[in-house]
Each structure stands twice: as C-alpha cells, then as structure tokens.
Records
---
Amino acid sequence: MTTQVAPPPGGDQHRSGAIIAMAIFATLMSCAFVVLRMYTRLRLTRTKRTGWDDWTICLALIGTVIGTGLVVPEAHYGFGRHQYYLTAYQVHQFKKYTYGEWMQTFFTLMLTKVSVCLLLLRIHPSKKVKMPIQSLICFLLLSNVALSLLWAFQCIPMDAAWNATKRKTAKCFREDQIDRIIMCQASMFPSDDIELTSPLMQSVMSIISDFILAGFPIIVLFNVQMKRSKKIVICGLMGLGLIKAACCIVRTVIYWQTQHEDQSWVGLKNFMWRNMEVNIGIVAACVPTLLPLYELLRSKIRPPKKPRAQQPPSYELHPWPRAENNTAPLQEP
C-alpha cells in the first residue's frame, strides 16, 4: 500500500449518498423476492409449507439487512470520501464498521449457497443426489466458518484491527495476509515467517461452487417426472447463479487492483460488486421457487383460448347446451 501525502485530484468528493442508496435498493430487491418466495410456498404450493431452504434464505436476507445497517455508519464516517480529508477518529470508525460488514458478507454468501443446496435436495431427495450435495454443504460451512474466524481474529486484541493506536502493540496479520483473507486465500493462522498459501483460493472456490450449483439441477432433474420444457426453465433459472459468479470474479479483480491506503475511496468499486454479488445471489436463489406464482399471474393476464363450438370448455358455467333460434333448452336425457 502507498501513503498519500498530497491532496487527491478532484478535492473532497462525497459519494456516501450513492453508497447508501445503492445498498438500500439492493436490500429492498432481495426483501421483495424473499417475501414473494414465502408467499408462494405458503399459499400457492400443494403442501403450503416452508422448508429449511426457505428459512436459510431468510437468514441470508437478515444478513444483508445487517450489512446495509453497517454501510450507513460506514458512509457517515467517510466511506465514499478520500481518506486524506478524514480525521483519525473518522478513519477509526470507518474501519470498525467495515470490519463488521465483511464478516456479514462471508456468512450471507455461505447461507445463500446452503439454501440453494437444500432446495436441490427438496426437489429430488434421492440417495445419489444427497451425498454430493450434503458434502458440498459441509464444505461451505467449514470453509466459511474458518475464513470468518481468520478475519475476526486478524488481530489480538480484536479491536486492534481498526484501532491504529492498539495496533502498534498488538499481534496482527500483515497487510498482505489480511488482503489474502479478504480474497479468501488463508490456509492457517499465520506468523511473520509463515506465508499464506493458495493464492485466490477462496475466490476460486466460491466461483467453482457457483458453477456447480448452476449445473447441478441438470443432474437432479434428469430423472424427475416433469415436462421437458419445465425442466429447461428450472435449469435456466437455477443458472442465474452464474451472474453472481461473474460479480465475484469482477470483485476479486478490482480488489486485487486497488491496493491503496485510501480505502475509504478506492474501496467503493469493490463494495459495489460485493453488494451486487450478495443480493443477486439471494434473488437467484428465490427465482426458481416462484414458478407457481408466475403460472398464476400468467393465467390471469393471458385471455383464455376461444373454445371450439362443438366442445364447450370445462369451466363453462352452463352445463346444458342451448338450442338455436331461441328455442327451449335441451332437457336432460
């Protein structure tokens, strides 16, 4: 990282309002899709019951709401401004809330992927499908818990992570090691003479898991008794997770390219893609469950097909045909 000694070009610019607006919009979008998902489960499905996949995505939604709640004080204390113009106290507070917001990101991404796994188990709970999906769930839980612990205990005491005064005497990861934790590259608790291994490990693992979850429905639905067109639609909807994977790729590249002391300013692009990754993941996890709602709306919007004269539609309210030329109705035989 470099130390900025001269005023940045453009002066004291403020983008905190845009940061808050973007975070709130993305969170409201996620809330809307989760509410529609729960409505569809409770009112439009045959069982009218929710499952573990639904409650897991609700936990992910709570996570992103908490994240938005942390973004507001982040912006208040200088996120979206050059650090050159911030006081030491503002930098202190900004780093503290950023610390918590990253923790939320780890858990929300994990819960979203676990919800997709549980949804796949709900669609086709066969033994052949259970084992690989349950293994993936265990991997997601263990890897993300380990990552979160590494991030939480990057300094001892913990508050030295954002307190510059305490950091001078605390035991902390080096800056490059913290960067690798954010990139999810850590493999062990480091010391000064132990290098963290597996560059870009977690980012790669995250992207790979997104591709697996996008492609797994093809295997899951292969033997399910369902119309081929519906199978294609469900697989396509589950494939929306690839958009999340694309956001993860962009976010990783941007983070790697913006290593600078002025994180309250250069971190804006990374936050934008990280926020999209989290909320698009929630939306993509909900969309496949909204097919009954889509079919209901489609039946109400599209006009019914005109029935043939000799074959009255089954929903006709008059069961007995009327004779022509205003004659009396036919009697029951």
---
Amino acid sequence: MSNVPAPKSFKAEEAENLEDIEKQFAVKALLSVDTSMLFRSKAVQHMSTYWGLLEKIRGSRLRLTKMDDDIYEHLKRDFPEFDPTETIDEDKMKSKSGKERWRNFMMAYEKKVEDYNFGTLLRSNPKFEYGEKETIFVPRMQFYAIEIARNRSGLNDWIYVREHPDEEIGRPQDTASS
C-alpha cells in the first residue's frame, strides 16, 4: 500500500464501490478463516473416525492402508530405534534432522498414498486418549507409520477392550458362544 494521501475532495462515505469493497474484504477474511477451519475440521474428523474404528475393531486386526506391510517394514528399516510403546518426542521429530528423515520416508509415498502429507492428529503416547497435551499435529504418513506399528504391537487393543468389557479375551469378535 502506498502512503499517497487521498484527494482532498474524496469522501469515503460517498464512494460508489464502498459496499462492494467491504464485501470483498469480508469474503477474503472469511475464506482465510474457512480454509484453516477446514483443515482443522478434516483433521478432527479423521481423528474421530480412527478412534471410532479402534472402538469397533481391535487395532491389532485393523489395516489402515493397502500398504500397511510395506509401510511397517519401511519404518523399521528407516527408524530402527523407533519404539511404539514410548511417548513421541515431538521436538526430536520436528528438529531439522528429524524433519529431514521423515521427509525422506514420506516422499516414498507421494504417488502411492492419497493425502500422504495432509495434517493429521496423532496421540503422542498409545496409552492415552486424544487430549490437548497428548496430541500432536503430523503429516498423514507419520500417522500411518506410527499407528501401524502401534497396532501391530497390540498397543491400541485396550480401546476396543474398554468398549467391549464382556467379551472374553482372545475370543473372535464375530462369533457368539452357544
């Protein structure tokens, strides 16, 4: 914007396009708010859907993608130190070297996994529900890799068990006792 003063004869209240200009500013402001809210809304929807699945299916029996096996093997190969039982160190994950390692990991899925880099909510520790202090924002491939590892380790089964307390441990969920 320039600092050139308006002509002395200019009266803003009488400008012909004042209402149209205000509408344009309002739409631009609304779009910027709607865009960030849309991303947050999609992330929250994804979180709710995933939690709902874990309540209905044991995590150890759940497949998140068609490529779960490949993603899991890739995670173990590129992050041999990763322990799915541990709390994620967000600072380490988002450090310069951490970002680079994860970026290299994720790029392998750029053309293979839809929305591979879309922002997603992840629990920092598999022992807790989603909460303000227990949730971090990560790209979807980090979510997939970490949750696949947790599910393979049975770390999310407690969510299903809590929702189905009367079910015998180890009994298949789709059969009834006679």
---
Amino acid sequence: MAEKELTYSEVAEHKTKKDLYMVVHDKVYNATEFCDEHPGGEEVLLDVAGQDATDAFEDVGHSDEAREILDGLRVGTLKRSAADPVPSSNTAPASSKTATSSASSSSTGMGIGLYAAILVGGALAYGAYVYVAGQDKK
C-alpha cells in the first residue's frame, strides 16, 4: 500500500471519536481504533484530534512501546503548507535534545548535592551524639 500524503486541512476533518487522525512529527496517524485503549483516556486523544499532536505527545514522555503502537497506526505523511501551524518540537529538534540533556545533567547534580547534604547531616548528627554521650559520662 502506497503511503498517503495528507494536507493539514484534510487531517483536520478527522476529529471525532469515530474518525480520529492526528499528526506527530509530520506523520499522520489514524487513532480511531486506539481511542478506547489509550491509557490516558480518550479525552487526551480527542483534545488533539485533527491537529498536530507532536508537542503533546513528546511532553508526556511516551515509552518505546507507545511509539511502536503509534507506528502501527500510521496512515501517511503530512504535506505542510506555509499557513500550517508548526509544533515547537519540530522547529528546533536539536535544541530540545540539548534541553533534555541539560535537564538530566541538572537532575544528576541535584542527586549528588542531595547525597552530600545527607552525608554531612549524618556526620553532624553523629558528632553531636558523641559529644552529648561524652558529656553524660563526666
């Protein structure tokens, strides 16, 4: 089967529970059959029905399994025109990867900082215990 090329206005016509198309990374998906099975509920899909759902899809952080399911729903590619809305994740994919990398680096830094704070707190508590125990013996 040859892959279809659909325009944004064609995708926009498919926005009901019984006929639900959406766009993720310029690929068009028919999520009609998956609507009832979606773990986040059908409302999530209906909110992006007939639209570009790239930002919403990426913001949630879907699993590899979810991406495989999405691949199975693919019906074509989006033929963009200048007037079509462009998701922010499509405009700067490299910067979004950089932001993700820096976010994970900052969370690692937070983990090390938290570990250090707990370690110092524990050492201070032990020192206070030894000091108080020494005072009681006198």
---
Amino acid sequence: MNNENIVAAADTYPTSISSLLLPTASLNISSAVSSLNRNSLSISNRLSSIYHDSLFVRQIAERYQFPLVANERCGSWYIPPDIKAGSAYFKSTDGHQGQWAFSTRRLNLQVLDIVEKHGGCIIVDSTRRGKSMPDALSKTVPIWCEVMNSLLLGENYGSTGIYTPEDLVSPSEHSQIQARLDSFVEEAKLLHLNLQARTQALQKPLRPIFTIPTSTPSPISREAPYNPIICLTASSPASSFPKNAPPSYIQGAADDSESCCSPPRKTTSPDSYNPSSSRRPLLQGLSAPQYLQQH
C-alpha cells in the first residue's frame, strides 16, 4: 500500500469520541433521557413525595400543637383537610432579592385571627429543587410580622429588628430589608385599617421561627414573650433527601400543581378546545393518599 492509500484510509477512521456516535444514536439517547425525566416527574411520583412530606408536616403540628395554615396554593397539598385551620397568601415575589415589599393587597389579616385564638400558628409552604426554603417564608412572612407588630403594638413595640434565617439570608440582605421597614409601615398606615379589636387581643409581638426537614425543631414555650409564627418548609432540599423518602422523591412536588396535575392543552381546532375543561385537575375530589390507593 503506497503512502496515498494509507492517508486515504486514515481519513475514514474516527478521530474523536463524538465521531463514534452516529446522529441517530445521539437522538435516541436524548429521547431516552427526556423520557426518564418525564417519568420521574409523573403524577404518581409527585403524589408519593407530597404524601411523604405531609407526614412531616403532621409531625411538626403534633409537636408544637399550633394550627396549620396553608400558604396557597402549594401549602394545601401538604395539610390533611381535617386539620387545616386556614389559608394565607404570602408571595415569594415580595421577598425576592431587591424586590422586598409589604403587600397592601394581600394583608393576610385572617392569620391574625388564628393567632389570636391559638397563640401562634404554623404556615406551610414548599419550594422546588435549588432552595431549602421559599422566599415567601424566609423573607415575606418576616416583613409581614414586623409591619403588623408596628401597627398592632405601636409605641409599645420595642423592636429588636426583623428575624430572618441566618443560613439563608445574608447580613447584607438582612440589613437592606431592615432599612425599608419604616417605609413599609407608613404604606400600611395609609390604608387606615381598623385593628383596634386585634390590638386589644394580641398583646405579644409576632415572631417568625423557621423549620425545614433537615433542621432541629426549636423548643417553643407557650409562655414565650411572643406569638410564634412557625414558617414550615414541607419538602427536603435536594442535597439531603430523607432515607425513608420514596425512590423517585421530588422536592417541592406540589409547587406549580396546576401544571403538573392537569391534562395537557389540546392543539386541536378552536371549536373543539374548551379551556375550562382542559385545565380541570386530574385529581379533583381525591386526596394524595386516595389517588395512590386507586392507582
């Protein structure tokens, strides 16, 4: 074989790992990975994960003996209906970096009624992979507590500063939120809320206490000089899934439940498309345990 033939033959051999994969093989691998991802996020896996996390929520409720309040819409998935005391609407967007706010549209005064009756409450929420606590619990609720304390207790409120989880909120962010609290209080005062009855009933300030599955629950006394607002994250962070979790455990499985537990929209003609029916939850009328028993 002459030199020209050797060079020509060499050109036909693969020169890299990527050249060993045929295009069709690459597409098949990509499709397989996508299929595995879809299967791992199936409704059954989501509900198994939600049910697992709901057991932790019940455990915390039994430990502290405070009523459970769902931060909607995610929180309701983790609370058995028979022990759900109410709902709250604290948005994570009000706690996002640089966008901290006290919402004058979502005052959550119904939470004060629960605290007045029971001396505290547990607000339940969750978050998806990448965080151990939603911003709604780590920052929005603490802001709300401080503003309400100022409105309810007035000059009698000797604030020592806002409470945020030290391992999640940096000192810089904490101080920036603290600097805005006075302006949040002034915004709330412009609403001229009638809080006189609640002022007489709530003699102690509201204080957020943060709990996640991997943390050690803080001891709380009924004689404490504050009303505890326990901010409970139901799901475990991705870095420390519990040993007794389902094989395909999904962190924050109830987050964005409208998308994952509703049938897909049909791409048919406008005449055959009914938005109201296409978004009806597949689990309507069923709790997570009931669904798992039937499937």
